[in-house]
Write a structure and sequence with these properties.
With about 140 residues, the protein is mainly alpha-helical. Helices cover about 50% and strands about 5% of the residues. The relative contact order is 0.21.
Length: about 140
């Protein structure tokens, strides 16, 4: 049998994860908005997790505060970059002003909801929902 380094396993697993994320089963528009502020269940769950863990720096609706406006940022980065930043964190180019975004890889609630958070932020970035408290579609 071949001896393989643990880093090789990690690289392979990460590659498979990226393939799954970019597979055709994930729609270009990962959310549904009805009646102006009603989100599908998954995107609404993303909003709730975002509000609990991200809003203290990024604002209640991702509009930015001490940290960047994610309704704008998510429109300019790939989903792969989003996943990387969420897991590992990021040091801002304006680190003295904004500080460092923590990596969330140790937080199961955030990591289990990465797609849901992305869906909520994508709806904000696409202008499908404003900086208002969304509702869950019935």
């Amino acid at each position: 049998m071949f001896a393989t380094k643990p880093s090789t396993y990690f690289a392979t697993a990460f590659t498979l994860l990226l393939i799954m994320v970019w597979s055709p089963s994930h729609a270009e528009t990962p959310y549904t908005v009805t009646n102006g502020n009603e989100l599908d269940i998954q995107s609404y769950q993303g909003y709730k997790v975002f509000r609990n863990w991200c809003a203290r720096c990024h604002g209640t609706y991702g509009q930015g505060m001490r940290a960047p406006n994610l309704a704008e940022s998510i429109a300019t980065i790939s989903k792969a970059e989003y996943l990387k930043v969420m897991a590992s964190g990021k040091v801002s180019a304006k680190a003295k002003e904004m500080g460092r975004m923590p990596g969330w890889k140790g937080n199961a609630q955030v990591m289990d909801n990465l797609d849901n958070i992305y869906s909520y932020l994508k709806a904000r970035a696409d202008g499908k929902i404003d900086a208002v408290a969304p509702q869950s579609a019935k």
